[in-house]
Design brief:
Elements: H1 13-22, E1 25-31, E2 35-42, E3 47-48, E4 53-56, H2 63-77, E5 86-90, E6 94-95, E7 98-99, H3 114-122, E8 127-130, H4 131-142, E9 151-157, E10 161-167, E11 170-172, E12 181-182, E13 187-188, H5 189-193, H6 195-200, H7 205-223, E14 227-232, E15 244-246, H8 253-261
Parallel strand pairs: 1-5, 5-8, 9-14, 14-15
Antiparallel strand pairs: 1-2, 2-3, 2-4, 6-7, 9-10, 10-11, 12-13
Helix pairs in contact: 4-8
């Protein structure tokens, strides 16, 4: 994850909670392949305390155009000049503030200094991470993964399939399980089973459910998780040995998770499992 959102290794979970109490409000921006969403978040409760503002992701999703859309969201929220901490979630592999992939945005984002770009363009510090990872943080701190032990896999179903791996309250970042390959069809998983695939191929809900069944069965075979959480714009059920539940925060998870990270806490330090001294 970006160096700018890393806490020192000795930072205790209790200290993260203290930080949330000291600065109980933050702004989260969730950049997606079709929409850019934002809101003001109460970090003690993990809830939006503003309207959820959404604008369309610009055609082609090139950096300058996305920055303009983010500014529009902040202006609409009336927080462009505020002192609220700001977290930004983005649909790409993110390491050291750079975006290393571009599945549903312009290829100009590949190996792009995105965190620095947004900080310069917005004139403020931000905290920047992968969109599915921050959704995982939201569910781990405030939702369906809270207090969950073992391996939890969260997936978000939308333009693509995002994923977050959570193990005993720790995030393993940049898992990208939406790009597992399906050799039979020559497509990766999200091209075959994302919500956008249902719309593109004009599938019935039953036909789409069959594709999702393949996907979750395949992930279950590879990872043997203890819990699946399904979020994003839609949720699903399925036949799997692993329990599968709907995300609590659904389409707001990226906003809430990005806001939670804005305090400077690395995702893998935001433990949701109660620990003993």
């Amino acid at each position: 994850m970006p160096d700018t959102i890393l806490l020192i290794a000795q930072l205790a979970v209790g200290r993260v909670e203290d930080m949330a109490s000291e600065s109980a409000r933050a702004v989260g921006i969730d950049i997606g392949g079709t929409g850019i969403k934002g809101g003001i978040v109460d970090l003690d409760k993990g809830e939006l305390i503003s309207d959820r503002i959404k604008v369309s992701t610009p055609q082609g999703a090139e950096p300058d155009d996305v920055l303009t859309a983010v500014r529009e969201v902040l202006d609409t929220l009336k927080v462009a000049e505020s002192d609220y901490p700001l977290g930004v979630a983005f649909p790409a592999i993110v390491k050291n503030g750079r975006t290393l992939s571009a599945a549903n945005v312009s290829h100009k984002w590949i190996d792009f200094p995105a965190e620095e770009f947004f900080e310069d363009g917005l004139g403020r510090d931000i905290h920047f991470a992968n969109d599915a990872d921050v959704a995982g943080v939201a569910e781990m701190r405030f939702g369906a993964a809270k207090d969950a032990a073992g391996l939890t896999i969260l997936t978000t179903l939308g333009t693509g399939i995002g994923s977050a791996l959570l193990y005993d309250g720790q995030l393993i970042p940049n898992s990208e399980l939406g790009h597992l390959q399906r050799a039979k069809h020559g497509k990766d998983a999200e091209a075959y089973a994302a919500y956008s695939a249902m719309e593109r191929d004009e599938l019935t809900w039953e036909a789409w459910a069959e594709r999702l069944q393949w996907y979750y069965s395949h992930v279950e075979f590879l990872f043997s998780p203890d819990l699946f959480i399904v979020g994003g714009g839609v949720t699903c059920g399925g036949q799997a040995t692993t329990p599968i539940v709907a995300a609590v925060h659904r389409n707001n998870a990226g906003i809430i998770g990005a806001a939670a990270l804005s305090l400077g806490a690395a995702p893998q330090r935001l433990s949701a499992v109660t620990t003993k001294d």
